[in-house]
Amino acid sequence: MKGRWLLAVIAANLAVLVGLVFAYPEFMVSPGHLSRGHAELATDCFACHAPWRGAASALCIECHATADIGLRTTKGVALPRKGLKTSFHQELIEQDCVACHSDHQGPKLSQRSRKPFSHALLRPIVRERCDSCHDAPDDKLHRKITGNCGSCHTADRWKPATFEHDRFFVLDRDHDTDCVTCHEANDYSRYTCYGCHEHTEANIRGEHEEEGISDFTDCVECHRDPGVEPDERGRGGGRREREDD
Questions:
Q1: Which domain holds residue 112?
Q2: What does the pLDDT look like over 184-203, one tens digit per residue?
């Protein structure tokens, strides 16, 4: 008899606990407070969570229209820019809000599988158009460059850049020109010295063949600094004085 009463008491307590979970989930199972923007939903767990399945992206877009995410609040108020020209959320491969976002600001028990933002989440065609989201750097070098950021930078981080011009060719006063003079069509993975009126292919060929040099296709292999005379090995040697110095 005592055993039955004990089981009945345990069953009753479990029933009460289950009832409390459904009646007051924000107190019973919530991992922490909501962010400020969602504070008004603190007592309405099912605004974001589907029963037995957890948070659901489908519920997010009931309040957040996909076209407005990152641009306007749910009340239509424009959001301030945070280093981006526009929102990237509309260009994601998959509209899965909970893959990156966890709203509770308490113990991060449910956030271990959350992904930080990665450019790999964007559609391939958008990944190649950095200027669709980012303002172009406003410095002397980048003002001359249009597009093709991936020639020097990676999507993982802006710095360090993978290219330092002075390591390959010094842009001195005689070569302080537009990038397209040497890099046709703004393709910075290739270069030509024939973009200058002095360096025609015929002139270069004649001068090098006269010196017995047959391989002159990669100019910067020997001429990394216009103010340095190549030595017998074809590398930059001693400094030469210029006529206009």
A1: 31-127
A2: 887 777 888 888 877 888 88
Q: Report whether the peptide linkage leading into residue 160 is cis, meaning its omega lies within 30 degrees of zero.
A: yes
In a domain, 3, yes or no: no
Residue 186 placed within a domain: yes
Query: Which amino acid does the sequence have at 119?
Result: H
DSSP states along 76-121: SPBPPPSS-SS-SGGGBSS--GGGT-----S--TT-TTPPPP-GGG
Number of domains in the chain: 2
- Which DSSP symbol is given to 189? T
Distance separating alpha carbons of residues 143 and 150, to the nearest angstrom: 16
Within this chain, do residues 109 and 40 fall inside the same structural domain, yes or no?
yes
Residues 66 and 90 sit within 8 Å (Cβ to Cβ): yes
Asked if residue 203 is part of any domain, the answer here is yes
Instruction: Look at the alpha carbons of 216, 217, 221, 223 in this order and tell me if their dihedral is positive or negative.
Output: positive
Q: Are 176 and 104 contained in the same domain?
A: no
- Output the six-digit token pair for 216: 């002159």
- By the 10 Å C-beta count (0-12 exposed, 13-18 middle, 19+ buried), 48 is classed as buried
134: in domain: no
Q: What is the pLDDT of residues 11-70, one digit of tens each?
A: 777 887 777 666 666 565 666 778 787 888 887 888 888 877 778 888 998 888 888 988
123 and 40 part of one domain: yes
Tell whether 103 and 185 lie within a shared domain: no
